[in-house]
Design a protein that fits this description.
The protein is an alpha/beta fold. 51% of the residues lie in helices and 14% in strands. The protein has ten helices and six strands. β1, α2 and β2 form a beta-alpha-beta unit. The N and C termini lie far apart (59 Å). It binds zinc ion (ZN). Zinc ion binds next to loops.
Length: 276
Amino acid sequence: MRLSTLMNAQSLKVYTATVLILLLILTQIAGAQTKSSFHFKTIVIDAGHGGKDPGAHGSHSYEKNVALAIAKKLERLLKNNMQDVNVVMTRSTDRFVELNKRADIANRLNANLFVSIHCNSSPEGTAKRAHKEKGVMLLVYGFHRKEEQLEALRENASIYQEKDYKKNYAGYNEKDPTAMIVLNTFMQKYRKQSILFGELLNDQFVSHDGRSSRGVKEQGVLVLAHSAMPAVLVETGYINNSTEEKYLNSESGQDAIASSIYRAIKIYRRKIRPAE
Ligand SMILES: [Zn+2]
């Protein structure tokens, strides 16, 4: 009786010690990860579409060109005003880049933030009313309901321009929302920071530029699914709304959009840093 009680006490001690050591290791890992996230060193700017994939279109312009023009303006702003940050573009010319390659670029560099620039478009062939849809929308990768998938499905359609899409996106099935979840490996870890950045962007577009906004939405966007860092897809406006198409193609409109993204990055960077 006594011996077994002693044995139990011994095992309990060993057990407690093991748990404590494990906790210590876990705390250290978590600490190291938190510390490394404070070093905000690299931003990847992703101009949506390109080359054979024009994206959405308006009456006289293509999404791929608008996205690249805004991305370049944002690149310049960051390079001029945030010199301690490494700014990398997934494309700087009119060329096609596969969706998973865009995320790979950011992952290889251990980027701290991935900003993908796009234009929205209301569905073709619907009532005229649809072409009056306007405003920005910020997409964050996440769980979603089928009916909220419009933007994700349109943006994900880029993969059909890729030769090996069946191999590269095995398991991707637009009709099966659960398949999207399987694709995602990192998402939950970066969800909160992505939403925070999305909200900061939303605030800049609305309060500073007076744009209307559809807010921050969680959708199964493939280009974000593979990014191992906070990531937001910016739908900068509706290219098939004539007023917005004009704005999206104007120098002043593009400057305003790039500046709003730049200011949101500046605030975001400050927010995720510890007090100095
Ligand atoms: Zn797009």
